[in-house]
Amino acid sequence: MREDIFEGIKLAVSKGENLQSAMQSFYNAGYKKEEIEEAARAFQMWQAGHPVTYESPSENPEQIHSEINSTSSPSQQVSEKPKGFFEELIGKIIPSSQTNQNKPSEKESPQKIIMILLGAVLFLLIFALIGVLIFKKDIVRFLTGKIIQMLS
After folding, report:
1. In this structure, what DSSP letter does residue 71 have?
2. Are residue 87 and residue 139 in the same domain, yes or no?
3. Phi, then psi, of 16 in degrees rounded to 5
4. Cβ-count burial of 23 within 10 angstroms (0-12 exposed, 13-18 middle, 19+ buried)?
5. What's 65's DSSP letter?
6. Is the domain of 50 the same as that of 90?
7. Minimum mean pLDDT among 9-13, 49-53, 62-66: which range?
8. Mean pLDDT across the stretch 92-97?
9. 8 with 65, same domain?
10. Is there a single domain that holds both residue 121 and residue 66?
11. Per the structure, how many domains does the chain have?
12. How far apart are CA 13 and CA 19, in angstroms?
């Protein structure tokens, strides 16, 4: 088990983050799912009071070289991630419309329209208020003349 993942999970949970969220953070950072799950199991065992043993880092240069070559750029990792445990877990926590990055723009569209309409209505009301303040004498004369005509 990787010590850095275990310690990171331990730190995140100590700061109030839940285990699943901490695991998702490591997954998003490009760590292998198996290593994250192993560290999470070790963390749960550690919470239950069992001792934790770390595996020593690999000193084999060929293994390090193959790990470096097998990892792709972060943008490729994001697009190539298969839907699995973490996506299902996040889907249960957050509705699917919020997990897809394309959908918030669609969801924001009605909100933007409402904000624009409310801004336009506010502008018209301010404009009308200024007009009433400037032409209040004329408005009063006009309305009193109409009221007098209606009464006679």
Report:
1. -
2. no
3. 105, 0
4. buried
5. H
6. yes
7. 62-66
8. 53
9. yes
10. no
11. 2
12. 6
Q: DSSP letter string over 74-115?
A: HHHHHHHPPS-HHHHHHHHHS-HHHHSSSHHHHHHHHHHHHH
| Distance in angstroms (rounded) separating the CA atoms of residues 34 and 27 | 10
Query: By residue range, what is the domain housing residue 127?
Result: 105-151
Q: Do 29 and 4 touch, CB atoms closer than 8 A?
A: no
CA 9 to CA 35: how far, in whole Å?
A: 12
Same domain as 62, residue 131: no
Are 20 and 63 within one domain? yes
pLDDT average, residue stretch 59-86: 49
- In the DSSP assignment, the letter for residue 32 is -
Q: What angle in degrees, to the nearest 10, is found between the helix axes of 103-134 and 136-151? A: 80
CB 24 within 8 A of CB 78: no
Range with the poorest average pLDDT among 41-45, 53-57, 60-64, 121-125: 60-64
Report the amino acid identity of residue 73: S
The position carrying tokens 């972060």 is 74
38 is written with which tokens?
Answer: 């192993």
Domain-ending residue, one of 85, 100, 115: 100
